[in-house]
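Example with several molecule types.
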Amino acid sequence: MKQSSLYHRSLLFLSLITLGCYSANAQEKTTFLNAQESDPIKMGWMVGSPPPANRILRFEDGSFFQFPGMRWSVAHMREFMPTVNVSRGLGNSVLLQKNLLKDIDAVTFTPLGESKPMTWEESLQKTYADGVVIMHKGKIVYEKYMGALQEDGQHAAMSVTKSFTGTLGAMLVAEGLIDPAQNVAHYIPELKNSAFGDATVRQVLDMTTSLNFSEDYTNPNAEIWKFSAAGNPLPKPKDYTGPKSYYEYLPTVTKKGKHGEAFGYKTVNSDVLGWIIARVTKKHINEVLSERIWKKLGTEQDAYYSVDATGTPFAGGGLNFGLSDMARFGQLILDNGYANGQQILPKAAIDDIKKGGDKKAFEKAGYTLLKGWSYRDMWWITNNEHGAFCARGVHGQVIYVDPKAEMVIVRFASNPIAANGANDPFSLPAYHAIAKFLLAKK
Amino acid sequence: MKQSSLYHRSLLFLSLITLGCYSANAQEKTTFLNAQESDPIKMGWMVGSPPPANRILRFEDGSFFQFPGMRWSVAHMREFMPTVNVSRGLGNSVLLQKNLLKDIDAVTFTPLGESKPMTWEESLQKTYADGVVIMHKGKIVYEKYMGALQEDGQHAAMSVTKSFTGTLGAMLVAEGLIDPAQNVAHYIPELKNSAFGDATVRQVLDMTTSLNFSEDYTNPNAEIWKFSAAGNPLPKPKDYTGPKSYYEYLPTVTKKGKHGEAFGYKTVNSDVLGWIIARVTKKHINEVLSERIWKKLGTEQDAYYSVDATGTPFAGGGLNFGLSDMARFGQLILDNGYANGQQILPKAAIDDIKKGGDKKAFEKAGYTLLKGWSYRDMWWITNNEHGAFCARGVHGQVIYVDPKAEMVIVRFASNPIAANGANDPFSLPAYHAIAKFLLAKK
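Resulting structure tokens for the full complex:
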């Protein structure tokens, strides 16, 4: 295989991370091994000295992100690529209290588009869950580690990363460090002549920018490939002439129509926001996340970002962390930014997220399973009867916050299908059923 | 630059890690910026979004390991390459007690080969120290963070890694899992036809194997380059036909003379020992270190290893950890394997290290600054009046254990000169002076 082909294979995961939340077209018809059959521990990936040839996963040829090996890799991302820590500091972690409810597994719901009910427990298999925690009233009521995820391991958060970037953005807005009405070029002059130049920070936060940026990875000319090539930490092929980092790529994005009219889920918005955050704080986003949230939250483990060849963290999809720390973060959002006796995030930032985005703009994006939703500060707002909102990443990563039920569900997963449309029918009604179950508990 | 040249530049750090402990020839005459002038924080490496072009360090072109940028990189290794965690688990760390002694900075000693005395404080500048902790009777009596090292950061341990591999080896010997009298081929049949096939495990542990393995990196045909190429995590250049991992490389090492007669400091011995450890425990060495030591030691942070393209940790030089955890490990060795109320390492393993190796075999290696020393279980034994012994890594990494003075000195450093010969004149007499100072304290 040619060097440049190898290089492009290794990009696959970067493009998958950035895939849109739901695309009906992405509903692949391939038959995959089910969750038990593809259990990454039973399959013995990377076990042995050396592992058998057919159990070695590599970055350079993209094998590490091909199903079913991908089920192992999502819990071992930094073994394949350079990464930068989000330090938790050195203090003790704050243990989450537990009040485990055994009957959660038996809670039933009807998957979207189906008529036969399914139990919560069955849904975990269906969605290839690697780990799930349900918090209710601040306590863990359900906890399960599956797949290749260990309690002291970290899992790829994929596009859940975007909601972290958005939360930091909303935080800096609430603090007055970022003015959402300003144009992006005000903060990042390098973006003046790009599509982002005359977009407002608010449009970036809510992804209502209008960009020539296709995330259709079946099209070899799609911009997502150029973006991924720029961000790939491997040395560029010698015939490569494009941008060599995220910061070199973003100024090349061009405009398509008018900003502010329609929701368009494009990863580059998160990277532009990450850039603004880095510029105004004069720190890399991993340091900002560490200092402002991770060190204060009582987390158990450092988190980490993948980085490009110049060390820039991938603010659009590169974050990894432990399951219980994901639960801590979800609980922080549910509790309006308050945890461990301090207001870690300004309440105004959480209020701004909960307020939701422009429903009409969202509708134009055509998510058939997400009727009535909106998008705000890089969070997905369900606008359901419980006021639930969520962070969502490909292959099934989620932080689902239900204020009315005082519930947070966090899940890591490794569904062979990237698009959330594969998991949503077995997830969204399941979350709501658990919420109602918990509300009825009293 | 050609792809393959880029690839070879990126190997430089791997070969530097593996450099011998001291070589008179390696005393380069180049003039370098001194420690203050090369302060990596003042120089502003990798600061900015993006950093200025002349402040960006990259893996692919080797710039990350060129002085003075290297002073930043040693505290940020995983931002340049894939790595695997050594988990500390999720429990609370065990804080080290402090009894800081202010007068240590003023302790004087006479550098080897000089007549004018120097203070301890001055020696830290001279050796480009990035962090130093001195333990006395189990308490921190001196602690300093310099360079780019943060309290919640990790620093490259370079060949100090070997002493960790050796300690695990001695542990498994004490437990009877490894028989040091057995030939290596007994455990690793793949090595039967290599130089290691008829070497005993003891000869590997004490590096008295006789190998065709030059670590002279000024010679482009030296075996160290082939070893580094095999272990480089980057995709191999398309004209590359050699071994593609550590485990593929090691069987190619050929014999040179007779084993057991002379000490020969060759990194591949540590990688062979790492392989044996992995084979008998059926785990990767990062897991062995985690389960048997790191999780029990009350460490504050996860450690990590660099890995090759197939995920094998670099047992000869790839370990990174925090300064206080390095002190915990040194104290564990001083305390004969006992810490936190439990016998973590068998006392017999520490006894075996302290017993020292064959002085005559050591003498043949010709280390002019290390007269009377020996090498055992991948530790350097001074055989001085205090029975001191140490772990040593290029650019100035050290764990110095002085049983008589009940003292441990740990140091991370980034001396522009790799070989320990550059630091030894300002280090070895300094350690002994501190030991005598502490002994006199009572």
